[in-house]
Structures are given as structure tokens and as C-alpha cells.
Amino acid sequence: MDHILWxxxxxxxxxxxxxxxxxxxxxxxxxxxxxxxxxIGFVLRRILTGEIESTRITHAKFIKTRHEFSIPVxxxxxxxxxxxxxxxxxxxGNISGIHNGVIxxxxxxxxxxxxxxxxxxxxxxxxxxxxxxxxxxVDVVIELxxxxxxxxxxRTQRPKNEKEGSYPVDAAFVPVPNVVYSIHPxxxxxxxxxxxxxxxxxSLSAKEAFYGALRKLADFIxxxxxxxxxxxxxxxxxxxxxxxxxxxxxxSSVGSDLLFFPCPSGTKxxxxxxxxxxxxxxxxxxxxxxxxxxxxxxYSVWDVLMNMIGRDFRRRQINFSRSDRIxxxxxxxxxxxxxxxxxx
Length: 344
Prior knowledge:
Oligomer: single chain
Distance between the termini: 57 Å
CATH class of the largest domain: Mainly Beta
Strand order of the largest sheet: 7-5-10-3-12
């Protein structure tokens, strides 16, 4: 198969309805075998719409306001509408932690995003976005908290010790609001090409978003490979003392490499905790029993053990075949060599 290449076929800026500036990009990946385009397109769309970071206002503090639904003196909009307008302000700048901004304006007139005073490296993208209308010659001061993250952060109830006039903002850290991919076959019917269309909110270009998604995908896959190929379970050190860099460990009472499970680095687990990290998916039980256990909200070997001791599975109408019981009992004997488990 020919070498697979990405190519940007179109990149341009787009204007939004609220004087926002959007970035559009169209990319093509080819050649691919049939089915590969769907896999790659789905993964990249998921990363672009959910894992790319952006900067948003997360908190606003108003001076001399009674509650969120009050209309401040000299301002046309109620507080909750101003908060919603602040939600749509887009910033550029890679920051860490909480940064502060402030709006300090005297009316009458309009407050727009360009009135937000910021410290570097933050800059406003959609500077014409409307925030509030001042109808009288009053001084308006709004203190802002700005953060960088990804995904959505819903508003929470204000703490009781928080001062009046302080309101959290629904933050949508989604710089890529729209991603569409399409698949087009080659004439031979065996190969195909993937087209990916990306629209960003202007805080970064479509190319930057696309390359960022590729880096995240590469960072996810890279840990599975060493210098000589894929890293296998038998190649990993299971003793946390011998590998302090985050390789999963195992219970100190277990020596079998079949009982490999994930746990925090450097943690010594007892049998109870260890069994909670072995899930039904790791047992070679029948599909019908697996579904029955899931319906009963039984997810780990520890759950199975507790239910076998504390409850009667027959009363719960769970059908254990002899082969399934043998598999589970063998696992239990590995962890509790001094105990006797009877298979009836």
C-alpha cells in the first residue's frame, strides 16, 4: 500500500453572526483500505470535539447586585443575561491556573468584549461581542476569573460563605464546535480516502486543532510501544519498588503473572482491594452468565465472592454452570491458598 499522507485542501477564516471569527479547514487522508477511514474519522472527531483545550470565563463578580435575576441600576439587562453573554467570549492564550480580568466602564453606552482588561498572554478574539447596555451614567465594575480546560463545566450552587454578587458561569471549553468527516471510495473499490472538515471558534486555526488532535492520538498510542515493538504484559515489572514510574503493580501475596491488574503506582494492595481490580471481562465465563451478572450490578471478582458468600445465587435466578464455577473458584484459590472452596 502507498504511503499514507494528510493534505490540507482548504483553509480560510469565516465570519459569525455576532462578529465572531471562525476558522475553517478541510483535510484529506489517503490512501486507506476499506473500513480504516471510519475508524480514524470517528476517533479524530471525538478528540477534536471533546479533548482540545480552550480558555473561557468561569466566574463573574458584580458590584452592588442583590441576586442573579435582579436588574442593576442603569443597566438594561438582568444579571443572568449578562452572565450568559460573558459565556460566549472567546480568548487566545495558553494559561495555567486562574487568571483575572476586569470590566470597568461608565455609561451610557455599550459594554462589549473589547472592554475586558486582561494581562498577557490573554487576548479577546470576538471583541465585538455584546455584553450589556448602559442606559444611565453609572460606573459598572465586573471582576472575572478565566481558566483553561476542555469539555463542559456546569454551574454549581454558590458556597454560603461566598460574597453576594459573585456568580459561576457555564463554561464550554469547546474550541471546535463542529467536525464533519466523509468517506469517498477509489475506483478500484478496495481503497478509500477520508475527508475531514473542521470549524473552530477562532481561538485557534483549523490546522492547529487538527495537529493538536493528531498529537493527542499519538500520545495515547505511544506508551504501548517500546524500542523493540509493542510492550507486552510479560515484559512489565509488576513490583512497584522495581518500577517507580507508574507501571501497574500487583498484590504482594500473589506471584502469578495471570493476575495482572491496574492499580496506582507504588500501592501495596491487600487481597480485597486486588480482587476489586479484576473484572468480569477478564474471566472466561460464558456470555449469558456475564450479561446476567452485569444486570445484577456485579462487576468484579470481589463482587462475585461477596455474593456467593452472602447471598443465594439460585434465589436471584443466576445460572452458574459447572465450568463457570470452576473458573471463578480457581481465581479465588490463587488469592486465598489457605481457604477451601467447594464446587457443588
